[in-house]
Amino acid sequence: MVILGIESTCDETAAALVEDGRVLLSNVIATSVKEQALYGGVVPEIASRRHCEYISGTVAKALADAGRTISQVDAVAVTFAPGLIGAVLVGVNFAKGLAYAAGKPLVPVHHLRGHIAALYLTHPELKPPFLCLVASGGHSHIVQVEDYTRFRVLGRTVDDAAGEAFDKVARTLGLPYPGGPSVSAAARTGNPKAYRLPVPHVEGKYNVSFSGLKTAVLNEVNQARMKGQEIHVPDLAASFQERITGILAEKLLAAAADTHARQVCLAGGVAANGRLRQLVNDGAQKLGAQVYLPQLKFCGDNGAMIASQGYYEYAAGHTAGLDLNGLPTLPIDYI
Ligand code: KG4
Ligand code: ZN
Question: Which of 121, 156, 289, 296 is deepest in the core (most CB within 10 A)?
Answer without folding.
Answer: 121
